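Help! Submission page says 'invalid entity' but I think these are all valid:
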Amino acid sequence: MGLSSLTSRAMIRRILHTTTTTRSHNFSLIRSIVSTPELNNTASAAAEPTPDPPAPPPRPPVNNARVHFPNPEDAIEVFVDGYAVKIPKGFTVLQACEVAGVDIPRFCYHSRLSIAGNCRMCLVEVEKSPKPVASCAMPALPGMKIKTDTPIAKKAREGVMEFLLMNHPLDCPICDQGGECDLQDQSMAFGSDRGRFTETKRAVVDKNLGPLVKTVMTRCIQCTRCVRFASEVAGTEDLGMLGRGSGEEIGTYVEKLMTSELSGNVIDICPVGALTSKPFAFKARNWELKPTESIDVTDAVGSNIRIDSRGPEVMRIIPRLNEDVNEEWISDKTRFCYDGLKRQRLNDPMIRGSDGRFKAVSWRDALDVIAEVMHKVKPEEIVGVAGKLSDAESMMALKDFMNKMGSNNVWCEGNGGQPQADLRSGYLLNTGIADLENADVFLLIGTQPRVEATMVNARIRKAVRANHAKVGYIGPAAEFNYDHEHLGTGPQTLQELAKGSHSFFSALKNAKKPAIVVGAGLFEREDKDAILSIVETIAKSANVIRPDWNGLNVLLLNAAQAAALDLGLVPESDKSIESAKFLYLMGADDINLDKVPSDAFVVYQGHHGDQSVYRANVILPASAFSEKEGTYANTEGRTQQTLPAVPTVGDARDDWKIIRALSETAGISLPYDSLIDIRERMRTVAPNLLSMEEREPATYSTLIKPEVKKEIDPAPFKAAIENFYMTDAITRASKIMAQCSSQLLKK
Amino acid sequence: MATSLQRAGLRLTHLSRSALISTKYSSQADALVESRTGEIGVVAGIPEEHLRRRVVIYSPARVATQQGAGKVGKWKINFLSTQKWENPLMGWTSTGDPYANVGESALTFNSEEDAKAFAERHGWQYEVKKRHTPLLKPKAYADNFKWKGPPMQES
């Protein structure tokens, strides 16, 4: 069909249209493509007097958003649909509408990305403006009268929608985004039931972005959200726009995988089904899923997540808003580790027989055997180790149980031999994750936040982008997605900084808000006390700790670490493993078991058949983080809670319940029977673990710190994490994570 | 009918003697109506084990995959129900918990207070999760063309 026939058809329709509208709409035989036919007759629309609509009742802002007023005097007043709202200067029209509680349709605009203004879906009418304006890019001016629900705005959006649907395939029934698609929803409001476009739709070659993101580029509407996300938040300029006009495509220029550790977020921000989750492809429909709002445990950040499950299975994990922790992003490890929850799980209690093979037994038998062995060994030979995914409740139970057995050798892996748990400021990210973005100079010591705590790294990147923060880094050569200065590899550089002879020291000293971040990988070093004290010297001489700003931070690695130190899981001697006769591993898979004496009895309680199971004599199956209610403290000391989303597998039980049952079999019942009771016990030890979702900042004091006499080992710092995608039992069991580490890691 | 009412009454007196005795007068005009915690559940004949549940009251976050805010701001009750199993032949999911599907799909409250009152009337122990809200900060299209300092070094 040629262009001429199209135009002639359109003309016929217009003629028919004007004739029908002059009579009555009810009798029109040909339905209009737009829902506002009266606008086609511009003369009659202008002549009609528009009565002032009554002011609607005030509505809460969209998403109940809070408004940040940088300067209260700079507030301006605009009118949205006749209702006055006060907004700070510099807001856009779209933001003003959001404050007024009007949700403006949009595709390209995203509140956490820069403004592109290319989808034109957010058109609104502004009084005295000759044309509809794109509200996302238009600054709101004082006294502006914005109308979001007028025929002009509606017609404009309908026009935009028609153009967008022109080249969008009609494959919603086989599209993974179907049911949670912005285009689908908004076409219900602004789309026509027919199209005037009779040419063939364009087709675009799919791109291979790696094992995580599936692309169907024909569905792309060129909103460029993914491009902006990749360059602004993820910091990898992998994606870009190619071509012009109808040949415009999103791509990677050359065949290349997306190598960001935040790449999964482009799935969320894609308003259509162009970028969807590859592991989730065709697995489930989103309306079948049951959402459970929970916490991530694969790193120490404690990102807020939503676990979507169908029946007894976790189908996917998506982020949840928390401005203080992860904003709206999560790392790929968090998002895609879920298939590890279904593989290599421990189902039944098992005892290793004399032939070295495990045999499934009942809970009673297993607990009896353990209790018998425990009473045979000397109390000081009993050792308990909590794993990196343990929740605070079970760690409390483990510590109480070990103490009741007469042993004080209980700790959490990752905290090193003699952890410093007396001063909370000594192991927390004291600045706070959200406040890190205000810092202007960073000194990263032995930490690579990009792999250790991706969301913290995103904040540092934000600070580098917004405030041009300087970043100095001491440690092995590492990849950063922002500009940084590699100062050195080991403690010598620290000594130079402490003396003030290093060039970076002046930058640190002159900074308005300096932040020193020490990696928790240093906890494993013999000379960590000496290193921490030299860092404190630097902090003191550079005036990093002030009454209003505490810039001395420790970035932890594991979800359990902060709560373990809060609860005082500190071993009596750091050589306890070598002399252990009874070792209780509560999900501890990353400790070195070579030094355990061969006659020691090892109990492994956990959810995955991972590294420690090979040495275990008895296995007790426990539930994973998606199956239990557990308290976790993140690296900044914020207490958060997981909630159960799915049932446990097999005969597994919650960690604290197993220890409670074992204590009863051993004849020393722990005095709590429920989660409420155990939290009351926690209140006596670490009350901050009960103030949910709150961050309890640590008070800083150097006065009571003992002096360190140890010598500094000049050995350079080592990387704490070798493989970002595989750090714990769940991620090591995950197939997706295995694919990622084989395809995305640079060898 | 009469016997069941009698039973319910008996259970009510039994319950009121036990821990759940906090009495609350409704603030409505009809001050004679007096509601006790857990009363609704008792009168409705709900089994006793379901009158002692622990629930979590929360406000669902906006789904990260979509921008629309139509469903945001409601309050829900999470019954922490995980008693589910799958039919090995057909893959159908069954549950042993009558409240398993109530929290997600059936109950929605306009405010935190409504959800709390509902839980109280049923005698559930509840915990309220803080609602997270976004923070709007000024941003401008012109920022795209702002001088952002010298270009990044090749690192």
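Support: the input was valid. A stray whitespace character was the problem, and the output above is from the cleaned input. Chain B touches chain A through 49 residues (CB under 8 Å).
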